[in-house]
Design a protein that fits this description.
Layout: H1 10-18, E1 26-30, E2 46-50, H2 51-77
InterPro entries: HNH, HNH_nuc
Organism: Hypocryptadius cinnamomeus
Protein name: ZRAB3 endonuclease
Length: 88
Amino acid sequence: VSHPCHVLCVLQLNEMIRSPAEGHFWQVDHIQPVYSGGGQCSLENLQTLCTACHRERTAKQAKERSQLKRRSLATKYACDITKFLVKK
């Protein structure tokens, strides 16, 4: 498995070299994600990640958050099948 830093596209790498800017190399990441209560945190919940790793982690968390939302909606709108059974 290649490290996310190694899969940055050539255009992004060229831009980073030609015109370095804040956020190109390192970003702050919440160890416990904001969506699961990590938003109001102290420094202990923060870490630095390279931009590529942070992008990958954020994408993975977005997928997890989407799955949690789908499960929550499924539970909320799920029917109790017993009300469809005929009682004798």
